[in-house]
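Schema walk-through. Below, the input block comes first and the output block second. Nothing else is stored per chain. Lengths vary across the set, and this one has 140 residues.
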Amino acid sequence: MSSSDILDELATQKVEFINHARSSVYNYVRQQRRRDIGQIIDKDSYGPAQHRTHHPGLDSYLIVLGYFCAKKAYNGHGLDSVLTDPVVEVVYNCYSELLQKHSDELNAYLTQKILANEIVLQETLKIVMSNLSAKGLKIS
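--- output ---
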């Protein structure tokens, strides 16, 4: 199967995939508590990878919300929705399902391409041999 055949097959499922992803995101957001979905993350507010969460109802929230809606930094820090990472994961899972559904075709295509390219084949074999060796298996 050629890459264009695989892409054509995936393209026929584009609308179905988008509807599934949209529905999955909608269902995820619907399951969250209302007071939680409005939270805004102030990135690196307390140092690298130490975020501060602004909750609706706090005095600073409306100011932060204004900066967030204007897509501007607040006190030099980026702002993000508390929903961003979970929604990205939901969409990632939808993509994973789609790729898993077509894994046989994708595996066959990639195997064909790997076997057809000697350099890629040699490097792949080196990686496999290294991993086997690291597990204590000796291949001669």
